[in-house]
Design brief:
Elements (H helix, E strand, L loop, with lengths): L2 H26 L7 H11 L7 H11 L6 H17 L7 E2 L11 E9 L3 E11 L2 E10 L2 H5 L2 H19 L9 E7 L3 E5 L2 E4 L16 H11 L4 E7 L1 H12 L5 E5 L3 E8 L19 E5 L16 H9 L7 H6 L1 H17 L28 H8 L7 H11 L5 H32 L9 E6 L1 H5 L3 H12 L2 H7 E5 L3 H16 L5
Parallel strand pairs: 2-5, 5-8, 9-12, 12-13
Antiparallel strand pairs: 1-11, 2-3, 3-4, 6-7, 9-10, 10-11
Helix pairs in contact: 1-2, 1-3, 1-16, 3-14, 4-14, 6-7, 8-18, 9-11, 11-12, 11-14, 12-14, 14-16, 16-17
The protein binds beta-D-glucopyranose.
The site of beta-D-glucopyranose has 18 residues, from α8 and β10.
C-alpha cells in the first residue's frame, strides 16, 4: 500500500466511523440517552467496510454526507421559499386547497375514495364510525409504465373501468337509486379552483400524460365515469398530503401537518388565511368559511432556483436524465423513486470505473454487461431497503439480489460498498426530510404553543424503509434539541392517509353542501 493509499484508507475509516457514530447517536437519543456512545461502537462494528475500497468509501462519504452545520441555512431558506410561495405565484406552489375545516373525529357514514399515487391506483370504501374509528376496504392495481407514460385521457378511462370493477364487487350494481359521493385523492400538483375543480399543473414521478396539462382532472374523471353510466359523483379533489392530514386529525385531533415520504414527497399544513397573500380579496377563495385553510405546499420543488441544496455529480446526472430536468430538486434527493435511482446511478458509475463487479480476470464490466442495472429505474426503493436491511455476515440478500436480478456476481467488498451506498443516500434523504419538517414547525411557531405538534406522515419510505424514521428523529434532535423534540413533537404514522383522507374530504364536502352521505 502506498502512503497515499494508506492516508486515504485512514480518512475513509475515520469518516465512516464519524458518520455512523453521528447518525446513530442522533437517531437513538430518543430511546437511549445514556447508552448511545456504547451503541454507536456496536453499530459501527456491525457495519463493516473492511473489504471495501477506502478511496471509494471516502469519496462517496464526502459526496453524500449532509453535515449538521448545513441545517440552519437550509431551514431558513426553506421558510423563505414557503413564505414566497404564499405571496406570489411561480415560486414553491403553496396551493390553497379549498379545505377550510378539519374533521372532528365524530363523522359517520360510508364513502368512496380513489387514490392515484405514484405507483398504484386504489379504489376504496371507507366506513367512518365516529370516535376516530373507521374501516376501509380497497382494491389495488399497479399502474403500468404504458399508462404512466401514455396519454392522460387513457389513464383516466382506465381509472373509470377500475371504479366500475370495484362497484360491481363491493357495492352491488343494483343500487341505482343511490349516488355515491367520491373523494379523489390525486397525488400530483393541481391548481385548485374549488374543492372539486383542479387544473393539472405538471406531472411528477415519471408520469407523462401531457395531453391533459392545464385541464380539470375532476371533470376528466367525471366524464369517464358518466360515459360508463356509473352512479358516482366526484365531489372533492385533494392531494395525498391533505388526505394524510385529514386522516390523522380524524384519529388525533390537533394534527396540523400532513406529509408523504413515499414514491414522491410533499407536505400540507393548516395556514391562516391572512398569510396567503397571493389570494386577491376578490377571488373566490375570499368566501372562505373559516379564517384558516389547508395549503398543499408541493415542497418537492424546494431549492429549484436557490442553489442551496448540496447537489453532487450523481444528483446532477439523475436530474438531467429525468422527465423534468431542473424541477422537483428536493424531491429528487428525498423520495423513494429517486433515491433508488441515485443508488443505481452510483452502482453503474462505479462498475464502469472498475470499482464494482470486477471479474476475477480483472475485466471491468461494460454497460451492456451490466444488463438491467444499466437501465433507468431498474432498481427500486423496496429493494434498496431490503439491501440496506441485510444484516447477514456475508450480506447474502445483496448477493442473491444482484445475481438473480442482474446476473451479476459480487465480492464481499462489492456488497459492503453497495450496502454503504444505500445507507449514505437514504440517510441524506432522511436528514433533508427533517429539514422540511423543522421549517414548517418553525414557520408556524408551533413549539411556542402549549400543545404537542402532531405531524401525520404516510408513505412507504417512512413506514417501511429501515432506519428512515430514526434518522429523521435524529436530525430533528440536532435542529432543535432532544428534550424539546421529545416533549413537543409527535411524528405519527397515518393509517391509510390517502384512502381515508379522500373519504373524509368527500364527507366534509357533503356536509358543507347539505347533502346526505
Ligand atoms: C407530487 C405531490 C404528491 C407527492 C407525494 C409529488 O411528486 O407532486 O403532489 O403529494 O408526490 O405523493
Amino acid at each position: 500500500m502506498t502512503l497515499k493509499c494508506f492516508l486515504c484508507y485512514l480518512k475513509a475509516r475515520f469518516l465512516s466511523f464519524v458518520s455512523f457514530t453521528f447518525f446513530f447517536l442522533h437517531s437513538h437519543t430518543f430511546l437511549l440517552p445514556h447508552s448511545h456512545i456504547l451503541r454507536s461502537f456496536i453499530l459501527f462494528s456491525t457495519m463493516s467496510l473492511s473489504h471495501a475500497d477506502p478511496e471509494v468509501i471516502s469519496r462517496l462519504t464526502d459526496a453524500f454526507t449532509l453535515p449538521t452545520s448545513a441545517y440552519d441555512a437550509l431551514v431558513d431558506q426553506f421558510i423563505k421559499e414557503l413564505n414566497q410561495g404564499l405571496a406570489h405565484k411561480g415560486q414553491m406552489p403553496m396551493i390553497p386547497t379549498f379545505v377550510y375545516e378539519l374533521p372532528t373525529g365524530e363523522e359517520t357514514g360510508e364513502v368512496l375514495s380513489l387514490d392515484l399515487g405514484g405507483t398504484n391506483l386504489r379504489v376504496c370504501k371507507t366506513t367512518l364510525f365516529g370516535k376516530g374509528q373507521f374501516e376501509i376496504i380497497h382494491k389495488k392495481w399497479a399502474i403500468s409504465d404504458a399508462l404512466k407514460k401514455g396519454p392522460g385521457k387513457d389513464l383516466f378511462a382506465w381509472i373509470a373501468d377500475r371504479i366500475e370493477e370495484f362497484l360491481a364487487h363491493q357495492c352491488g350494481h343494483n343500487d341505482k337509486e343511490k349516488i355515491y359521493p367520491l373523494g379523489m385523492t390525486f397525488s400530483f400538483p393541481c391548481e385548485q379552483l374549488d374543492i372539486n375543480v383542479g387544473k393539472l399543473l405538471f406531472w411528477t414521478k415519471g408520469f407523462r400524460g401531457n395531453d391533459i396539462l392545464g385541464q380539470d382532472v375532476v371533470k376528466i374523471l367525471q366524464d369517464c365515469i358518466d360515459a360508463k353510466k356509473l352512479n358516482v359523483m366526484v365531489n372533492s379533489l385533494i392531494n395525498d398530503t391533505v388526505g394524510t392530514l385529514l386522516a390523522t386529525t380524524y384519529k388525533h385531533p390537533g394534527c396540523e401537518i400532513g406529509i408523504i415520504f413515499g414514491t414522491g414527497t410533499n407536505c400540507a399544513y393548516l395556514e391562516e388565511q391572512s398569510q396567503i397573500t397571493k389570494i386577491k380579496s376578490d377571488a373566490s377563495n375570499s368566501t372562505a368559511l373559516t379564517d384558516q385553510q389547508l395549503i398543499n405546499t408541493e415542497w418537492g420543488s424546494f431549492g429549484n432556483k436557490s442553489g442551496i441544496l448540496p447537489i453532487n455529480e450523481y444528483d446532477v446526472h439523475l436530474d438531467a436524465k429525468s422527465s423534468q430536468p431542473g424541477k422537483q430538486l428536493y424531491e429528487k434527493m428525498v423520495s423513494g423513486l429517486y433515491i433508488s435511482e441515485l443508488a443505481r446511478i452510483v452502482f453503474h458509475d462505479l462498475a464502469l470505473n472498475g470499482k464494482l463487479f470486477v471479474e476475477e480476470s480483472g475485466h471491468f464490466k461494460s454497460s451492456e454487461e451490466l444488463g438491467d442495472l444499466a437501465l433507468k429505474e431498474r432498481f427500486d426503493g423496496a429493494m434498496m431497503g431490503a439491501l440496506e436491511g441485510d444484516e447477514s455476515a456475508q450480506l447474502d440478500v445483496i448477493e442473491n439480489h444482484f445475481l438473480s436480478s442482474y446476473n451479476l456476481k459480487t465480492s464481499l467488498s462489492d456488497r459492503e460498498t453497495i450496502k454503504y451506498i444505500c445507507q449514505l443516500i437514504s440517510t441524506r434523504a432522511a436528514r433533508l426530510s427533517a429539514v422540511g419538517i423543522a421549517a414548517l414547525i418553525k414557520k408556524r411557531q408551533m413549539l411556542t404553543k402549549p400543545n404537542q405538534t402532531i405531524v401525520g406522515i404516510d408513505g412507504s419510505l417512512f413506514n417501511k424503509y429501515p432506519n428512515f424514521r430514526p434518522h429523521i428523529e435524529g436530525a430533528l434532535n440536532e435542529i432543535f434539541d432532544t428534550a424539546t423534540v421529545k416533549a413537543k413533537i409527535a411524528l405519527i404514522s397515518a393509517e391509510d392517509g390517502s384512502g381515508v383522507g379522500g373519504a373524509i374530504a368527500a364527507h366534509l364536502t357533503c356536509k358543507q353542501k347539505g347533502l346526505p352521505v
